[in-house]
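Whiteboard transcription, Tuesday session. T.W. wrote the C-alpha cells on the left side:
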C-alpha cells in the first residue's frame, strides 16, 4: 500500500520487471473504476492475483483477499494508525513491513518496547552525494531564483514547493497557482514551467509528471503531492516556500526528491518562522540528512504519541522514564527483558519476586475485564 497513484504506478512497473511472468501483478487505486475494478477485486478475492499494489483503495470494505500473507506499507508515515491496521487485518497473522525514510515519533517509541524490529539503511546509493541544505529568509528570494535559473541553464531541473494550491484569505503564505503564473510570465522566453497539485485529474497529473521526467519542463511548481514516489534524477534543486509550515518528516521526504543522480543537489528552505519550534526545525534540517536522527529530534519537539493507542504526537503519561532523555536506557531494559523471557529466568529463585509481581498484575487485569 502506497499513499499516491504515481508511486503505485512506479512500484507496479518495477515489480513487473522483477517478478517472473507467471506471477500476476495488479494495481488498484481510486482511479480504477467500473468493470476494471470488479475484475481486479475478483482476482484478489479468488487468488488469481498474486501481488497487488494500491493506495487507500486496498482498505475499502469490498476488497477481500484470498490469503493475505505479506503486507508492505511504503511511506508509512502518510497513513493513519487505523489505516495501517485495517490492511493488516485483511489477512490472518500476515507479516508486515513498514517502510519510511523518516520514522515518525510514534514508531520510534514503539521500537523501544520491542514491538517492531528495525532495519536501518544508512548508506547512500553508489555515486550519490548528500544533499546540501540551506535556510534563507524571504528577502533573499531574488538570489535564490537566480541560483535556480543557473542550475536550469546547466541542464538541471528544479522543484518549487508551496503549502497551498490557491490563495487563502486566512493565511498569508505562498500558493502554487500564483507562483506558477508569476514564473511563467517571468521566464516565458527562457524555460518551461509546470504546475502540479492534487486537484488535477489523473490524466493531467500524468502529463505534467511525464513532461518533467522527460526534461521538457525545467521548473515544477507543486504542492506536497510530489512528496513521495517521484524519481527524476536530473532534478538538483528542491526549493520549499514557507518551509516552517511543514514538519521535519515532510521536509525530509521533500528533500529526498533531489540528490537522486550523480550531480550535487540542493534543498533551499525559504522561511521566516515566528516561533522557536519553527526556527529549530529549520536549524535541524540544515545540520543532518539522517532520517533516524531527524526522528529523534521530532520526538523531542512533538512527543511520541500513544504506545497502545492511535494518537501520533503529544507526551505520554509515564510514572518513570522519559522516551527522549532515557531512550538508550529503555533500549537496554528492553534487551534485558527479552533475555529473561527467552531463557525462562522467571523460574529461577532470584526472579521469584518479579514473577510474583507479574502474576498479581495479570490477576488484576482479569478482574478489571470481568
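and on the right, the sequence the group agreed on:
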Amino acid at each position: 500500500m502506497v499513499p499516491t497513484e504515481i508511486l503505485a504506478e512506479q512500484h507496479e512497473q518495477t515489480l513487473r520487471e522483477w517478478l517472473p511472468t507467471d506471477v500476476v501483478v495488479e494495481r488498484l487505486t481510486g482511479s480504477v473504476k467500473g468493470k476494471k475494478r470488479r475484475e481486479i477485486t475478483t482476482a484478489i478475492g479468488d487468488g488469481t492475483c498474486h501481488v497487488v499494489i494500491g493506495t487507500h483503495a486496498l482498505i475499502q470494505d469490498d476488497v477481500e483477499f484470498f490469503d493475505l500473507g505479506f503486507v508492505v506499507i511504503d511511506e508509512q508515515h502518510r497513513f493513519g494508525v487505523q489505516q495501517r491496521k485495517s490492511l493488516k487485518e485483511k489477512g490472518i497473522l500476515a507479516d508486515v513491513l513498514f517502510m519510511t525514510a523518516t520514522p515518525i515519533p510514534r514508531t520510534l517509541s514503539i521500537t523501544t518496547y520491542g514491538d517492531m524490529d528495525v532495519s536501518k539503511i544508512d548508506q547512500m546509493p553508489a555515486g550519490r552525494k548528500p544533499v546540501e541544505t540551506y535556510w534563507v529568509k524571504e528577502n533573499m528570494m531574488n538570489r535564490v531564483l537566480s541560483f535556480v535559473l543557473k542550475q536550469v541553464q546547466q541542464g538541471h531541473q528544479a522543484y518549487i514547493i508551496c503549502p497551498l494550491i490557491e490563495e487563502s484569505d486566512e493565511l498569508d503564505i505562498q500558493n502554487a497557482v500564483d507562483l506558477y503564473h508569476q514564473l511563467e510570465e517571468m521566464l516565458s522566453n527562457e524555460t518551461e514551467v509546470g504546475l502540479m497539485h492534487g486537484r488535477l485529474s489523473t490524466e493531467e497529473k500524468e502529463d505534467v509528471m511525464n513532461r518533467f521526467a522527460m526534461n521538457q519542463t525545467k521548473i515544477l511548481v507543486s504542492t506536497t503531492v510530489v512528496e513521495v514516489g517521484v524519481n527524476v534524477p536530473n532534478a538538483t534543486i528542491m526549493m520549499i516556500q514557507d518551509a516552517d509550515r511543514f514538519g521535519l518528516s515532510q521536509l525530509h521526504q521533500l528533500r529526498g526528491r533531489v540528490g537522486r543522480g550523480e550531480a550535487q543537489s540542493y534543498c533551499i528552505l525559504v522561511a521566516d518562522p515566528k516561533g522557536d519550534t519553527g526556527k529549530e526545525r529549520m536549524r535541524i534540517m540544515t545540520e543532518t540528512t539522517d532520517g533516524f536522527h531527524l526522528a529523534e529530534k521530532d520526538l523531542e519537539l512533538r512527543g511520541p504519541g500513544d504506545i497502545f493507542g492511535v494518537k501520533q504526537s503529544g507526551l505520554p503519561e509515564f510514572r518513570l522514564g522519559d522516551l527522549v532523555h532515557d531512550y538508550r536506557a529503555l533500549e537496554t531494559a528492553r534487551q534485558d527483558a527479552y533475555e529473561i523471557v527467552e531463557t525462562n529466568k522467571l523460574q529461577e529463585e532470584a526472579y521469584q519476586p518479579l514473577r510474583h509481581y507479574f502474576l498479581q498484575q495479570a490477576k488484576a487485569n482479569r478482574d478489571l475485564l470481568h
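Someone added at the bottom: The CA atoms of residues 241 and 270 lie 5 Å apart.
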